[in-house]
Amino acid sequence: MHEALDHREKHEHEHHHDHGHGHSHGLIDANIKRSRAGLRAVGLSLAVLGLTALAQVAIYVLTGSVALLADLIHNFGDAATAIPLGIAFLLRSESAERKAGLFVVFAIFASACVAGVEAVNRLIDPQTPTDLPALALAGLIGFAGNWIAATIRTRAGRRLDSPALLADGNHARADSYVSLAVVASAAVVALGLPIADPLIGLGITAVILKITWDSWWTVRGHHHSH
What we know:
Structural class: mainly alpha
Helix content: over 70%
Distance between the termini: 46 Å
């Protein structure tokens, strides 16, 4: 009994001691931790996507495929969305994070427009991509890079309750499927259907537009719940 009282007193003393430091001390610590974790996730996924995009650039130069170009542009856009997200985590500001989320949505939309225009150009002025094994390889690299980046972002987004990181995670995951479309493009051209290359480019554009819409709701939906 005495021991239990002693323990309670000690616990209360410790509890009091914590508050004695000022309540903000604990909060700042949590904020700094969250900020660091967010920056780590953003930095890691940026490095993965940067390497993915660079590998694809090298292969695009060899192949000239519009499906790959659409994917490539998107991967660079995807990597660029890390910048405002990183700044938001650095500032430890929820409103900056929400703005970064909106920027992510805008970046996805912009890449859809670029990919769409490029695909339409190729329909008007067809060019058959060459070096199909390299093209398929680029698609697989894109798939792997985006899948890894999506996993990093989504895990951190859930852990940190960050709608912007979650939106960026959804965006990278859908991108990984888009990269698989590049592999499909190499396959249809190999089968002697080069017209399918820009058509797959248009399909990719449609997928990106759908992701834009979904991500908009992820970011806005969280806004209403606050």
